[in-house]
Every structure is written in structure tokens, then in C-alpha cells.
């Protein structure tokens, strides 16, 4: 996770349904405005557009830079604030003839979005499309930008502009062609997935669950095994692994306690599988299978407030970081990282993400920092609907993230379930910040009202759609 700056989270509704906005540049005029150094035209093949430039209908938008500038703002629109606020993603098709590009160096198209309430912009973000100078004749591109996921994006705005800029290391870049522009909402969903009520149908069966019933103080069932064992020294990050800190409360809940005792930062870390540690017969693992699966956790973090610790509900495969989701992934359904600083609070937000490469790019919900707001004082239910094509992440029965990026959707069935507390002290050399970017200081310096901290789990349930 990147450094967290003071943020104002938008009042994002979990399940938004809007009609996608589309412009195919078919009408006589366009609301795109040229600059003093550009000319915009709606063109068809008869008026000189390359066939490949028209991807929808009969016309496209031709952008001509009239000056030889390496940097050229060639088009701007000022009337899309409603569409920008309602959607999460901007996409369009681009065609660039090779003759439009410099012979050497580099060239890119930059899309810029900025907006605010009053005179000055509250945010100003860009996304670049690198162009291939060596594509013989020319090349088609599809530009997609999940701008709502940019940490700086703010939808609490009254105006917004979208600009298209051409930038080349030398010479000019003209003409280029654009078609099939769309604002879409990545969270739009089929009606039957807009709540988790489909689980009640007889098409779904509960295939595995733990309700955490049992005597007060008892250890959880054996399928919850100590994890992070590969280090062989009983530690993980800055914690001492302490499976005995996970116990039943006698009222149907699993308690995960973390505390500072005898110089040790005790933290429980429970897994249903861990490659290299547990055999297949000792492991319980899941994946989308052929029909899809739904995994549900009910948890409570109202007593989990220790800075430098975090609690997570997640899945981890045998082979999570191959860079190929078909081989497995890390699926963080919720990570709660309590922190209250002078500038911002993380107390009522959780993180979700999918990782397929250690230290590599991850995908997150399309909102600033991938963080979702929730009521941290009550019980909440997190759910993951997972097929080979889509993952829908639910909070209290409503989607908070729809992931259709198949590059990150694991089709592998070796994912174990994890209920973990991890501890990482802030680094004094980096302003006492942990690797999440929060100035958490040291776990052991938490005041008495935050230590011990407790996370509670009411149940973990796994449903599978019945075979047809
Ligand atoms: Ca068109
Ligand atoms: Ca229970």
C-alpha cells in the first residue's frame, strides 16, 4: 500500500448502477474543444480516416496538432462532471499512424482529469498511453483508466475537465484518431449479484463452515493451524507467533487476542493450509471450481485498536506469487489496520486487494487507496463471490468491489483461509511509519486501553453453487 496522505473518502455507495456514457463521434459536432494549437474533426474513411481508426459506427475523432510542439494539449472537455462522478473508468480506442510519430525517441498520449468545487482544482491526475514507434504503418490501442481508484481522485466536486495531451521526445504527434469513448462503472453488476441473497436459493449449498461453538477458552477446531511456520523461529514480522492467543469465547465466537507480554508481541496467525508446512490431508483449500464459490466471514473489530497491528480475513494459495493468477493468488478480503493520526484516521476503513506477484502491482477497489468505509463498532459480514470470470466482494450483503480483471482472478483451487493478526512496528528511520505508511510507532507503546486488542469471528462459511 502506498503512503497515505490526508484523505477525504468520497461518499461512495456500495452498489452503484448507472447507464454507461458513450460517445462514438458519429454526430455532426463534438463537445471536445480544440486548443489554439490543435484542430478537431469528425472524420470517416471517405474523408481520410484510416479504416483501423473507426472502431464503432462510421466516424471517429481526428486530432491534429498544428504546431510542432513536443507537448500539445490537443483537446479538452468541460461538461462531463456528472459522468465522471457517476463512473469509475474512462476508456476509448486510439489509432496512431506510424507517420504521425517521431522516428526515434518516445511518444505518448496523456489523459488528464482535474476538478474541484471552486476556483482551484481539488485534484489533478493523469494516465499515460505509451505509443509504439516501431509499429509498421500504425497501431490500434485500447486506453482504459480506473481514475476513481487514483488516491488523489475526489468526487466531491462541482466541475471537472478532461484533457488529451500528446507528448513526444521530439517533433510532433499528429494526427491521431479516437473512437468509442466510454465512461463506465466497474461496480455495475448483474441484478442477481447486487445482494448476496442468491445464496438462499437451492442452487447453492453450504459445503464447509465453522461457527466457533465450544467451551470458553477452548482452542479452535484443528483445521485452524498455526501459520507463518516457514521461518522456523516462532516469529513473523515483529510478532511472536502465539496460536494460544486464539480461543473460543464460549458464546459462539473465536477470539484473536494480541498483547505485549514479557517483552514479546504475541499474535495469533491461523491458516487452513500452508505449503511446505502442512500436508494435503491436513489442509482445507478452496477455489472457484466450475460453478463458483462464496466465502463468508462475520467479524468484529470494535475491540481491535492497537496501532502497529492489523487483523485480516484473507485467502492464500500454494503458489500465490507466480505472476500468473491461474496458478494462485493472495486475496485480501479485508485488512483492518487501526490508526488514528493528527491528519487522518484509518479507524473506519478497511483495505482489500489481490496480489499475484510479491512486491508487484496489485488490484484494489476503484476508490482512493482501495479503502472502503465501514462501521468498525459493530459486527460486519464480508463475502467473496468467486468464479473463474469474476470476483464480487461484499460488505453486509452489498458489493463493495467488482473485479472483472481476469489477470488477477485465480482459477486455482489451493487457497486456504486465513484469520491473522500481524504486527509491524514503525521504522524510526522513516518517521515511525509502518509499511502501510502510518506513523504507528511501537506496538508496545500503545496505551492500556488498546492492549490487549481483540478481534472476534462469529463464523466462516463456504458455499458452492451446485453442479448442473
Ligand atoms: Ca465512431
Ligand atoms: Ca458463531
What does this structure look like?
The chain has 468 residues and is mostly beta strands. It has 2 domains: 21-184, Galactose-binding domain-like (Jelly Rolls), CATH 2.60.120; 191-465, Jelly Rolls. It contains 1 helix and 29 strands. The strands form 4 sheets. Strands 11, 13, 14, 15, 16, 17, 19, 25, 26, 27 and 29 form an 11-stranded mixed β-sheet that branches. It is elongated and about 80 Å long. The chain starts with 20 loop residues before the first strand and ends with a strand. One calcium ion binds next to strand 29. This is GH16 domain-containing protein. Belongs to the glycosyl hydrolase 16 family. InterPro entries: Beta-glucanase-like (IPR000757), ConA-like_dom_sf (IPR013320), Glycosyl_Hydrlase_16 (IPR050546). Residues 145-468 form the GH16 domain.
List the helices and strands and how they pair.
Elements: E1 21-23, E2 38-43, E3 60-65, E4 71-77, H1 81-86, E5 89-97, E6 107-116, E7 123-130, E8 138-145, E9 159-168, E10 176-184, E11 204-210, E12 225-226, E13 235-236, E14 239-241, E15 246-248, E16 254-261, E17 264-267, E18 269-271, E19 293-303, E20 309-316, E21 330-336, E22 349-355, E23 362-363, E24 371-373, E25 380-386, E26 391-395, E27 398-403, E28 416-423, E29 453-465
Parallel strand pairs: 14-17
Antiparallel strand pairs: 1-10, 2-3, 3-10, 4-9, 5-8, 5-10, 6-7, 6-9, 11-29, 12-18, 13-14, 15-16, 16-17, 16-29, 18-28, 19-25, 19-29, 20-21, 20-28, 21-22, 22-23, 22-24, 25-26, 26-27
Bound molecules: calcium ion (2 copies).
